[in-house]
Structures are given as C-alpha cells and as structure tokens.
User: What shape does this take?
Amino acid sequence: MNDQGPKKVDETAAIREGIERTRGEMSATVNKIEERLSPAHIEEQVADLKQSVLGSYHEAKDHLKEDLSRELLEAKEKVKDELLEVKEKVQHEISDARTAVRDATVGKVENMIQEACAPSALSKAQSRRIPSRSAPSPSPSAPRSDSRFRARIPKTSGWGR
Assistant: This one.
C-alpha cells in the first residue's frame, strides 16, 4: 500500500495544481469580462460608436446634398430649355396668327384695291365704260352711276352704296 500512497499524493497534488491553475485562469477571464462590462469601458465604446455614426451621417448628408444640387441644376436647365422652346413656338404661332388675320382683313382689302387699280383691270373697266359718241362724257367730279362697275366691288367693303 505504500507504493500507492506516494503516487496518490502526487496525483492529488497534480489535481490541486490543475485546479489552482484553472482558478487563476478563470479569475483572469472574470477580471477581463469585468473590465469589458465596466461602465467606463461601455461609455467609451458608446462614444466611439456615436462618433462613427455621426461621421457616416455627415458624409452621407454631404453626398446627398451634392447629388440633389446637381439634379436640381440639371432640372432647372432642362426646364429653362423647354420654356425657351415653348416661347419660340408661341412666338411663331402668334406671328402666323397675325399674318393670317392681316391676310383676312387688311391684306384682302389691299388685294382688292390692287386688282381694281391694276392696268388690266382698269382697261377692262374703262372698256366697259366707254360712252357712246352720242352720249355726253361724264365729268371727272360727277359720281359714277355705272352699275356694272359697282357690281365688281364687294358689298362688305362699304364702297358703292
């Protein structure tokens, strides 16, 4: 039995050493956990995280502002170009409308006057008005009473009434 006694004592001592070593390791681990969970350490981590999040926020905000400014500038230019194009179209349409109104009113009267005063129209009108040799020639200041001449002028003009 004596042979087993010292061997058992060595085993017990080894087990006790292992327990002490494990206890020391566990104590160091618990101390590290305690340090990590200390309010000062957690406060420091929260402050670091806050700074990181705020930095990311400001960076994203600046990029967004730049993108929005660029997009807004492009939209303004596009609207400006489209307004200029619409303005030109409206001015062209107004010009066409003015021309059409003038052609339908003043231009029509001018054309009628030109046709009435054209040499071929005058010679035709004069050939119709040539008085016979027996009839006296009307004086230039006398009103014209030739109904054939009046029929050629439209009644809307107010002439010959």
